Amino acid sequence: MGVDLAVHLVFWCSLQVSGLLDKMVKLTMVARVTDGLPLAEGLDDGRDQKDADFYKQQAKLLFKNLSKGQHEASRMSIETGPYFFHYIIEGRVCYLTMCDRSYPKKLAFQYLEDLKNEFERVNCSQIETAARPYAFIKFDTFIQKTKKLYLDTRTQRNLAKLNDELYEVHQIMTRNVQEVLGVGEKLDQVTEMSTRLTSDTRMYADKAKDLNRQALIRKYAPVAIVIGVVLMLFWLKNKIW
User: Fold this and answer.
1) How far, in Å, CA of 116 to CA of 93, rounded?
2) How far is 108 from 222, CA to CA, in rounded Å?
3) How far apart are CA 150 and CA 225, in angstroms?
4) Quick count: other Cβ atoms within 10 Å of Cβ 62?
5) Could you read off the pLDDT of 77-86 as tens digits, one per residue?
6) pLDDT tens digits along 187-210
């Protein structure tokens, strides 16, 4: 009886931990805002690899948009399928995580704050000079350690964070990933069209100048020739006489 009870207890605990893992951080990435260069990433354990690759691509597209100045706030939540991207931008660096929808938004942003504080403390002087992707891959050690602290939302530590009235997230904007990425694509199209129109306008203006010049030449060239001939005759007459 005691053995059966222990087995059931272990099984129940494993389900609880599994449920917590499903609600926790699925992806963590750090990127430079000025050019979208990925600086660090929380390495996963290989589960749901197909989905992980898909959402990593979405995250990189978000970084690309941010590098073009297409962001409205330094903190934002973005709906994507069954998950939320949450990001904060500070010091030209974007700290992004993807969590299950049911994971508390306040904890997600405090998790990002912890990452930001440590990343700035350790790597601040090297951020601008980093030239290759994932130059700070060793930061994964801190990411994994911090993820464990936020795993169970019911710990006294995390409950205290949830009840912290000084840290509010209600004002943080929430948008849809298609809307965010779509805006970037439309802006790119508008920019491309604007550039094309400007180029065409300049080309047409140059052509118009050439046509006006040719018209003036055709209009006044005969008069100039006649005047030139008359002046030449007067000069020859004076020369001979």
Assistant:
1) 9
2) 82
3) 91
4) 26
5) 999 989 999 9
6) 444 345 445 544 544 554 455 456
The gap between the terminal CA atoms of the chain, to the nearest Å, is: 143
- Continuous H helices in 150-176: 156-162
Nearest Cα residue to 41 out of 160, 170, 133, 159: 133
Can you read off the two tokens belonging to residue 224? 């100039």
Give the neighbor-by-neighbor strand order of the sheet with 83-90.
38-41, 25-32, 93-100, 83-90, 75-80, 173-176
87 bridge partner residues: 76, 96
Asked if residues 137 and 126 have their Cβ atoms less than 8 Å apart, the reply is: no
Which tens digits make up the pLDDT trace of 45-58? Answer: 555 556 778 888 99
DSSP H/E element including 153: none
> Residue type for 202, please?
R
Whether the pTM exceeds 0.70: the reply is no
